[in-house]
């Protein structure tokens, strides 16, 4: 039974290859979380094909929204506002969600709220940790982003560090392709690494000159490619599990080291991780060990809330809603939207 004063956000997410809708109550309670993944469709191409992603979103979006309402046991009448990811992401994919949200908002006369995708990832931490409040530091590691963020308040961020080249997830996907694991690379490297030795090959831990918090993964990716080439030239059989585990360890070492440095320097007592790569089992274990050692409270969303979903957009949308943020019907997809911008 919902109370009149309850705020129910219907959230829509379609920035990449997941068509998702969710109903979130009062910012932290997920009443439904429907995700229709296109991964199988893109696997044969070795990565997300934007045109196919947009078409598939169009096919699925109405059904996914209906399911989200049904599972939450509510109708559009019960919904307080519609939240939608409007960037960053693939422009054609984003437009499908944005158009659907605008249409529903207009037809049902409900406020519309455009949400930043990365703000959504960060907000995923509020779902299972109802006592978590800003300020805290958050490492966002996804297919398109690697950001170390100071969450100063709800919707108030300062970027402390970011990747100068490849995102962490992008590096996972590229290395997976190079060792023949296919797409999506992250989960496959995660799995095969369990059988490998992370100390087998010494891959570089990149430092960015002049910044202790920025990241660079393109050198590591090249080092893996060079290693594979030299094995081929010398006719040495490649142990895929060792390569995957050694690469993964190199990524994690850098992520943990830079995060800890920032947490200490800025004096944060709470640290959260977010984004698809945050579902990596070794990364989660490494942060758990490091945070226990340094007595930092660690928050890590369940894997289903790390990879793309609409519940996180509903949470972020709620905090924008209570602040009074509303979008107009001129809301457009912004493929390279910066965090903190509107
Ligand atoms: O957050 P997300 O679902 O979409 C973006 O906003 O980009 O992140 C997708 C990325 C992909 O690069 C994928 O390979 C990576 O997250 N990923 C993982 C794992 N699961 C997904 N990376 C490492 N280990 C995983 N278990
Ligand atoms: Zn994402």
Describe the 3D structure.
With 342 residues, this protein is of the alpha/beta class. It has twelve helices and ten strands. The strands form two sheets. Strands 3-2-1-4-5 form a five-stranded mixed β-sheet, sandwiched between helices. A five-stranded mixed β-sheet has the order 8-7-6-9-10, with helices on both faces. Helix 9 packs parallel to helix 10. The protein is globular, with a radius of gyration of 20 Å. The structure holds 5'-O-[(R)-(carboxyoxy)(hydroxy)phosphoryl]adenosine (KG4) and zinc ion (ZN). The site of 5'-O-[(R)-(carboxyoxy)(hydroxy)phosphoryl]adenosine (KG4) has 19 residues, from helix 6 and helix 7.
Radius of gyration: 20 Å
Bound molecules: 5'-O-[(R)-(carboxyoxy)(hydroxy)phosphoryl]adenosine, zinc ion
Element-level helix/strand string:
EEEHHEHEHHEEEHHHHEHEHH
Please give the share of residues in helix. 40-55%
What brief labels describe this structure?
alpha/beta; binds zinc ion; five-stranded mixed beta sheet; 342 residues; binds 5'-O-[(R)-(carboxyoxy)(hydroxy)phosphoryl]adenosine; globular
């Amino acid at each position: 039974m919902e109370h009149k004063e309850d705020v129910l956000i219907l959230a829509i997410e379609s920035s990449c290859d997941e068509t998702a809708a969710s109903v979130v109550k009062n910012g932290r309670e997920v009443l439904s979380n429907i995700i229709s993944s296109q991964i199988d469709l893109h696997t044969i191409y070795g990565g997300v094909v934007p045109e196919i992603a947009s078409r598939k979103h169009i096919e699925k979006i109405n059904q996914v929204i209906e399911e989200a309402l049904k599972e939450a046991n509510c109708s559009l009448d019960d919904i307080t506002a519609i939240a939608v990811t409007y960037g960053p992401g693939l422009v054609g994919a984003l437009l499908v969600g944005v158009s659907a949200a605008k249409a529903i908002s207009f037809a049902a006369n409900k406020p519309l709220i455009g949400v930043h995708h990365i703000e959504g990832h960060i907000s995923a931490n509020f779902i299972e940790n109802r006592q978590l409040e800003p300020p805290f530091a958050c490492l966002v590691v996804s297919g398109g982003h690697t950001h170390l963020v100071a969450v100063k308040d709800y919707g108030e961020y300062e970027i402390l560090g970011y990747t100068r080249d490849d995102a962490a997830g992008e590096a996972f996907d590229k290395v997976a392709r190079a060792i023949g694991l296919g797409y999506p690379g992250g989960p496959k490297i995660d799995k095969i690494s369990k059988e490998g030795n992370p100390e087998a090959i010494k891959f570089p831990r990149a430092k960015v000159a002049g910044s202790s918090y920025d990241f660079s993964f393109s050198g590591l990716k090249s080092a893996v490619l060079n290693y594979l080439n030299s094995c081929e030239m010398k006719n040495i059989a490649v142990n895929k599990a060792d390569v995957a585990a050694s690469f993964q360890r190199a990524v994690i070492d850098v992520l943990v080291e830079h995060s800890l440095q920032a947490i200490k320097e800025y004096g944060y007592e709470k640290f959260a991780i977010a984004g698809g790569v945050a579902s990596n089992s070794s990364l989660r274990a490494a942060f758990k060990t490091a945070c226990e050692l340094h007595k930092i409270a660690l928050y890590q969303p369940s894997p289903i809330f790390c990879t793309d979903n609409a519940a996180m957009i509903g949470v972020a949308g709620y905090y924008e809603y209570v602040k009074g943020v509303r979008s107009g019907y001129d809301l457009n997809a912004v493929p390279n939207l910066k965090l903190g911008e509107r």
